[in-house]
Amino acid sequence: xxxxxxxxxxxxxxxxxxxxxxxxxxxxxxxxxxxxxxxxxxxxxxxxxxxxxxxxxxxxxxxxxxxxxxxxxxxxxxxxxxxxxxxxxxxxxxxxxxxxxxxxxxxxxxxxxxxxxxxxxxxxxxxxxxxxxxxxxxxxxxxxxxxxxxxxxxxxxxxxxxxxxxxxxxxxxxxxxxxxxxxxxxxxxxxxxxxxxxxxxxxxxxxxxxxxxxxxxxxxxxxxxxxxxxxxxxxxxxxxxxxxxxxxxxxxxxxxxxxxxxxxxxxxxxxxxxxxxxxxxxxxxxxxxxxxxxxxxxxxxxxxxxxxxxxxxxxxxxxxxxxxxxxxxxxxxxxxxxxxxxxxxxxxxxxxxxxxxxxxxxxxxxxxxxxx
Length: 372
Prior knowledge:
Blueprint: E1 6-13, H1 25-36, E2 49-53, H2 56-59, H3 69-72, E3 78-82, H4 86-98, E4 104-111, H5 118-123, H6 138-152, H7 157-174, H8 185-190, E5 193-195, E6 198-199, E7 209-217, H9 218-223, E8 229-238, H10 252-265, E9 274-276, H11 282-291, H12 300-304, E10 310-311, H13 326-339, E11 351-358, E12 364-371
Parallel strand pairs: 2-3, 2-4, 9-10, 9-11
Antiparallel strand pairs: 1-7, 1-8, 4-7, 5-6, 8-12, 11-12
Helix pairs in contact: 4-13
């Protein structure tokens, strides 16, 4: 059965910074929640539920969202916490509205990894009996994936460096990301080792920031004013928890998530105008594009360079990976590009696919198909 259409009325996002040293979590959340209603024709009183996405591990305390309920606008409202990337919070919210249980929902994702030990956050997700004791990590997973991918395909370290440099340049051009110095491809290659064969700059960069998205049923969204961006397809999937139990030459769970989203929407990523993908490494971005069906296995390099489908005009996750926010930020960026395609060098655009990931080696994946 086709998914009932749900619209994105408005979005808001803080600048993504390596460290928001002069703002607390509650400040970032308040900023986007206040901003998302501007020009929407709605107020917090119109919201039926609030779903937030964050991490107790990153925040350093249990049930950390309880300290942010006022900033979230969740006082005397139904509120839920999703301890996954924010795109899963949006998935939850869309299902609530599509089922008829609510009309308007507020989705908020936030993160301040600058105040945490990011390696410990990832360590908490590693299989605990055999892999965690030997120090297996998110970086080790990225290195293993890269070793296998480079050995099997016609992709060089220079290709990866060029991809990273291009993504940082796109992030600087399209705003929203604090970048003090753009790395060149040679800078990427000469950076310190991240996990062989990848250099440190070939991994995504943790950032602080927050995002809010206002969702509503199609009728409410159209009454709110400007034509809404409609969510016409969704899909999610999770691979095996233990890294060694997966086929790490490809992202099978992303392929399955993309197939499910395409089945709901009636079209696939290859038919989109815009694609925004998340990735933990430069190699993982190529694998993600292949899993979405934009290229055959091992040929993601060509898809990453763009063409019929504009890929990561925002820069994607490599220059800015605000953990717990990254996938929802891809949704925000795609909505902006659909509404203002000429600003991003597109003559027109009517369809977009967005992707979020979570877990070691991108274990879990979620895909949205959007239309205007």
